[in-house]
Design a protein that fits this description.
Blueprint (H helix, E strand, L loop, with lengths): L2 H12 L4 E5 L11 E7 L5 E8 L16 E5 L16 E10 L5 E8 L6 E5 L38 H5 L4 E6 L14 H16 L4 E7 L4 H4 L2
Parallel strand pairs: 7-8, 7-9
Antiparallel strand pairs: 1-3, 2-3, 4-5, 5-6, 6-8
Keywords: Signal
InterPro entries: AB_hydrolase_fold (IPR029058), CocE/Ser_esterase (IPR005674), Xaa-Pro-like_dom (IPR000383), Xaa-Pro_dipeptidyl-ppase/CocE (IPR050585)
Pfam families: Peptidase_S15 (PF02129)
């Protein structure tokens, strides 16, 4: 699989709303109707022309996007997100689609899970474009669910990330953003590079200054979530 094919496949799997790198100019011909040439930060402050391809809209069933729903809710102890999933063992405060403005004016949206009691808490950031909860990647898509029983998870977790239900009940805040260009987050979705790093920095600085934050934040997760660190 060549780099152009690999990147186009990844873009389709991600299912984000904006644009994503497909390859160099000579590889863009088959996608002329859906591509545009944009600049992207790659190393340092240098920018390079990179072909981007328009992706599927978030309402596509494959994306499993629940829609843009800013709200604050309490998820009650003992409740279940779906039949067969693990019951919540404590009350959890959910702030859905919280807006975070990046340095260039674009806005990304995050779901924040935290304890319901007043106080300050350390936070764990799950940084990826896969959706803030179920999203477009899910264990149900994998034969045998990688041997992870549905009953072992609350189904509040992001793909390849920690389960908020476990960590919130142990005194942590869990932050699950849709990165630049994913779902309702604005901007063009970059494949790695300086832009991704700057966005992550801005998000963590924002989180550290929230009234519920102790100022101590870490990042966690597998694959994309690990590489992003």
């Amino acid at each position: 699989m060549g780099i152009a094919t690999a990147l186009v496949w990844a873009a389709t799997a991600v299912g984000v709303t904006s644009a994503v790198t497909v390859a160099h100019a000579e590889d863009a011909a088959p996608y002329e109707a859906n591509v545009t040439l944009l600049t992207q930060k790659v190393y340092g402050d240098d920018t390079y022309p990179v072909w981007h391809r328009r992706l599927l809209p978030p309402e596509t069933p494959r994306a499993r996007y629940p829609g843009f729903k800013p709200e604050t809710a309490v998820l009650k102890k003992g409740s279940k997100r779906r039949e067969g999933a693990k019951s919540l063992r404590c009350d959890i405060l959910l702030e859905r689609d919280v807006a975070v403005t990046l340095r260039d004016g674009n806005t990304i949206y995050a779901d924040i899970f935290r304890p319901t009691t007043n106080g300050t808490y350390p936070g764990i950031v799950h940084w990826s474009p896969y959706g803030k909860e179920t999203g477009n990647q899910h264990l149900d898509d994998i034969p045998g669910r990688y041997n992870v029983p549905l009953s072992s998870l609350s189904e509040l977790q992001k793909w390849e990330a920690n389960d908020p239900a476990e960590w919130v009940c142990n005194g942590y805040a869990i932050l699950q953003p849709d990165t630049r260009g994913a779902f309702s987050s604005t901007g063009n979705f970059p494949f790695w590079g300086r832009q991704l790093a700057e966005d992550g920095y801005d998000f963590i600085e924002w989180a550290a200054n929230q009234t519920w934050s102790s100022g101590k934040l870490g990042m966690s997760g597998n694959s994309w979530l690990t590489i992003s660190q």
